[in-house]
Design goal:
heterodimer, A: alpha/beta, six-stranded mixed beta sheet, 11 helices, 17 strands, 29% helix, B: mainly alpha, globular
Chain lengths: 368, 324
């Protein structure tokens, strides 16, 4: 099994830096068209910028990386305006990773990582250059690819080589635009793990769509709300920024799920132990859903309340009557086959009532 | 390569014993005066001209492929050839009006072509400072087409013997290189190759990553682009002026170099594209001399006919390893 060795990142490889990136009432955009307004301070730690496509994450990161110049305001690195750094000085300071993968015919992966040393290289690569390249390849898990041709690697492997290129210059600040796109779930996790290790020493700023990994790894999460960069106080809000509020964060899995409960007809589920959630997911329900009766600490109750369903729990005095009302008004009743401890004993009585009322009762077996 | 070089000096329509040529090259006084003229004023300049212009074409082709990040890059892609042709036509009009066409044309042609194509290259390079790769490509190709169009219009208004002469002038031939021309070619190659090698240490490879990555690696992309464009364009301009338009060598040499040396790095490809260009030119020159006994044949025809199968064979042997 491959895991990150904690001691892999030694003091020598990433120097502890107390440099911060500061955006002072900065407006980022293309040729006069403002996209993002931002005032923020990124210091040591993993800062993640999330937001839907086209919200301006890339524009902001490119502005921080001095690829674009800000329309207004200044960006300071170590209290110095980045426009006063010359291009080579800046290149030594800031490592960058972009989502597009270049076409490099007959370049070996090692050659590509070595390109990351360009700002330092003299006539020939020095010992330090070679060491930095080895380190970067080790940390990005591409050492075994070093002699392969870059163009012939898979997209995920290319992505990791490009990340190694960004690390190879031993940057004081690392800026990465969607470093995990095209990667498989394990490698996404690995990249985040590596970056959070590096972020213990230097500021690492990245943009991502990996909501679950962002919550797990990022020290600070930023989002772009109507063209303005804001810090997210509570990760729960993450759900709200996608699809104009039609998604909700599942607090247990950190995944985004569509809201249930917008449009009728109503379906009443007598579930428990997560069986209700499984049924909704498997049948991709977006209708108005009601559940009950459930124990208040049941997984179904906790998650589906967040996702917008009507949930009746035993914490309510009149929970049985409320559940019966919902059964009566529903068009369909779904019952899961789960162990007895998954729901209150009187749920069985409710099922009998539903049958007596002539409701369309559907049973299903619960397995994930 | 040196073997080819000497074969080309030894072999020709007039037979002179190789031992005597070698003797004269080293110790002098082995050849008669007329033989000396054949060797020193004809065979050596022509062979050197072929070698050096092949080198320049290979270099130019590689630099254009790098600049445009495109495997279709070729010394004439930016319209240097069309501009040269146009300038020759203008020169023809002026010289006919002044009445010295057949006396001075052959003398003036290389100079005018060189100056006009160099000016064109400088202008393009200055423009490319601020443009993206796509814009550079489109501007170059459009200007090339525009000047060809004007040439076609003007050509129909010239007397037929003049247009025939112009056709031959740019058709591509190593036979027109005189001792002075070969010296200029060698000096140009030395300068352009030195600059390209210096750039290839650090500045060429990041260009392949694209504008934004190159910038993030501390490369002043506009400046380097202008320099590369200038180097590539001047190499092409000088060859057009002295040996005319020779297709395929400039396009194929970088590809052959990449395949043979299994590398895409500028440091390796600058010298090897150059060498392979020179080698192809010498081979072509030999082929023409053997097959056509010195008859006037467009070099492009020969390079293309023999070069294309070679390149296709090499690409086929690599089986997808060479992907662009």
């Amino acid at each position: 099994m491959v895991t990150v060795q904690r001691d892999l990142i030694s003091r020598k490889d990433i120097e502890k830096g107390d440099l911060c990136v500061e955006l002072v009432s900065c407006i980022a955009g293309y040729s006069g068209n403002a996209v993002v307004r931002a005032s923020a301070r990124f210091c040591r730690g993993l800062s993640c910028i999330v937001g839907p496509n086209g919200s301006g994450k890339t524009t902001l990161l490119k502005t921080i990386a001095k690829i674009l110049s800000p329309i207004k305001g200044v960006i300071l690195i170590g209290r110095r305006d980045i426009s006063t750094y010359n291009i080579n000085e800046f290149a030594k300071l800031v490592g960058i990773h972009l989502p597009q993968i270049p076409i490099l015919p007959l370049y070996k992966a090692r050659d590509v990582v070595m390109l990351g040393r360009t700002p330092f290289i003299g006539l020939t690569p020095s010992k330090e250059d070679l060491e930095a390249v080895e380190f970067a390849m080790k940390i990005a898990k591409v050492s075994h690819l070093s002699e392969r041709y870059f163009n012939l690697l898979s997209d995920g492997e290319k992505r990791r080589v490009m990340i190694a290129m960004a690390i190879a210059r031993r940057p004081k600040i690392l800026v990465l635009d969607e470093p995990t796109s095209f990667l498989d779930p394990f490698n996404r996790y690995l990249i985040f793990e590596v970056l959070s290790e590096i972020a213990k020493e230097i500021p690492v700023i990245l943009s991502t769509h990996e909501v679950d990994l962002a919550i797990r790894f990022c020290d600070k999460i930023y989002y772009i709300d109507r063209g303005e960069l804001k810090e997210m106080a509570d990760p729960k809000e993450l759900g709200k920024i996608y699809g104009e509020g039609s998604m909700i964060l599942n607090p247990f899995t950190y995944s985004l799920e569509p809201i249930v409960g917008k449009e009728p007809p109503q379906i009443h589920i007598i579930g428990g132990c997560g069986s209700g959630l499984a049924y909704i997911r498997r049948n991709r329900l977006r209708n108005m859903i009601s559940l009950g009766p459930l124990y208040p600490n049941d997984l179904d109750a906790l998650v589906l309340k967040e996702l917008g369903a009507i949930v009746i729990t035993t914490s309510l005095q009149s929970y049985f009557d409320r559940s019966l009302e919902l059964v009566k008004s529903s068009t369909m009743v779904i019952v899961s086959r789960v162990p007895r401890y998954c729901r209150p004993p009187d749920a069985e009585i409710l099922i009998d009532e539903a049958v007596k009322l002539g409701k369309d009762v559907d049973y299903f077996d619960f397995n994930i | 390569m040196s073997i080819l070089f000497f074969i080309l000096i030894f072999y020709g329509p007039v037979y002179i014993e190789p031992s005597r040529i070698l003797g004269d090259l080293i110790w002098g006084n082995y050849l008669t005066d007329s033989e000396k003229i054949i060797i020193y004023n004809r065979r050596i300049p022509i062979t050197l001209g072929a070698l050096v212009s092949g080198c320049l074409l290979g270099l130019s082709g590689f630099l254009y492929q790098l600049l445009l990040r495109n495997p279709m890059g070729d010394p004439y892609v930016m319209g240097v050839a069309s501009i040269s042709y146009l300038s020759l036509i203008f020169l023809a009009f002026i010289s006919i009006a002044l009445g010295f066409f057949f006396t001075y044309m052959s003398l003036l042609a290389p100079i005018v072509v060189l100056i006009s194509s160099l000016i064109y290259t400088v202008v393009l390079s200055i423009i490319s400072y601020r443009l993206t790769v796509l814009q550079i490509l489109l501007v170059g190709i459009s200007l090339g087409f525009a000047s060809s169009g004007i040439s076609l219009l003007l050509l129909s208004r010239l007397p037929s013997e003049v247009s025939g002469y112009l056709y031959l002038a740019l058709m591509g031939s190593f036979d027109g290189v005189d001792p002075a021309g070969s010296k200029i070619l060698i000096i140009a190659l030395a300068i352009l190759l030195a600059f390209s090698l210096a750039l290839s240490l650090k500045h060429l490879d990041p260009m392949m990553l694209g504008e934004e990555y190159a910038k993030s690696l501390g490369i002043n992309i506009g400046f380097i682009r202008a320099i590369v464009s200038l180097l590539a364009g001047s190499s092409a301009a000088i060859t057009v002026a002295y040996v005319g338009i020779i297709g395929f060598i400039g396009f194929a040499s970088p590809h052959i170099a990449r395949i043979l040396f299994r590398s895409g790095r500028g440091l390796i490809l600058v010298p090897t594209s150059c060498l392979i260009g020179g080698l192809l030119a010498l081979l072509t020159s030999l082929g023409i001399r053997v097959a056509f006994q010195g008859g006037s044949v467009p070099v492009t025809a020969v390079t293309s006919i023999f070069g294309a199968p070679l390149l296709i064979y090499m690409v086929a042997r690599l089986r997808g390893e060479y992907s662009w």
